[in-house]
Specification:
Helices cover about 45% and strands about 15% of the residues. The relative contact order is 0.14. It is globular and about 50 Å long. The chain has helices at about 5-30, 85-95, 110-115, 145-155, 175-200, 205-215, 220-230; strands spanning about 40-45, 50-55, 65-70, 75-80, 100-105, 135, 160-165, 170-175. Helix 2 packs across helix 4. It is of the alpha+beta class. The longest helix has 29 residues, at about 5-30. The protein has 7 helices and 8 strands. Strand 7 (about 160-165) and strand 8 (about 170-175) form a beta hairpin. Bound molecules: zinc ion. Zinc ion binds near residues 86, 105, 107 and 168.
């Protein structure tokens, strides 16, 4: 095999692996009750190419055939099926965040409960502090056009996550592992905060404690361990 052919084979393998990672991510989020029948995740594979799940797919039974490649205008350039109506959310963030290689968007219950009553997200457990402070998009509208996409991207700014009032949440990462893990930490923190609020006033970590958590827990190996924990539970 020539070096060029070998390189081509490596590219094909890695693209298939990225598609499988995206499939695993969505199935794990579905199994964890973070994603419902509407959620979507993406991986950027080139400046103007995004892998994303088909809008109408079954999240719990996803395969790589449910993944399409789109460009930053939302046109399908490879695969069968249509990307989600909220594909604009992904396009809008990738347009302005060169550091972002993966995005998770879901409508998780516990995080969204907080936004419904205007309760700010508080860092109440170590992993959950990684996304604090968590900006809030002050609109429940679907991100199904460029204007809403630009508003969300501006709200997110340079942060790893944002909430969307009475709608959902978005997390971003340098890879899909990071975006998945942060979604998990954010939702778990929201669950713990919500439950603690039923019996009293939750303790919120201090700035110093948050800095210590970030130093210890923002770590690719620990993110991989969290990913592997959930991956091992998939069929
Ligand atoms: Zn949504």
């Amino acid at each position: 095999m020539t070096p060029v052919e070998l390189k081509q084979r490596e590219d094909i393998v890695s693209l298939a692996e990225l598609k499988q990672q995206l499939v695993d991510c969505i199935r794990m989020l579905e199994q964890s009750d973070i994603i419902d029948y509407n959620g979507h995740c993406s991986i950027r594979i080139a400046v103007n190419r995004i892998l994303i799940n088909v809008g109408s797919c079954q999240r719990s039974k996803l395969t790589i055939d449910d993944i399409v490649t789109i460009d930053l205008e939302g046109n399908v350039v490879e695969g069968k099926g249509n990307p989600p109506l909220e594909r604009h959310l992904h396009m809008g963030i990738y347009r302005v965040r060169a550091d972002v290689r993966a995005i998770v968007h879901a409508h998780p219950k516990w995080s969204t409960f907080l936004t419904m009553v205007g309760a700010p997200y508080q860092p109440v457990y170590a992993q959950g502090s990684l996304v604090h402070p968590l900006p809030l998009l002050d609109s429940p509208n679907s991100i199904n056009n460029r204007e809403m996409a630009d508003r969300l991207a501006a709200t997110l700014g340079d942060r790893p996550a944002a909430l969307m009032k009475s709608h959902g949440a978005v997390t971003v990462g340098r890879d899909i592992v990071e975006a998945f893990v942060l979604a998990n930490y954010m939702e778990e923190n929201s669950y713990r905060q919500y439950m603690a609020m039923q019996i009293g006033k939750p303790y919120a970590f201090s700035e110093h404690e948050i800095a210590l958590c970030r130093e210890k827990l923002w770590n690719a190996n620990l993110f991989k361990r969290t990913w592997d924990h959930f991956r091992a539970k998939l069929d």
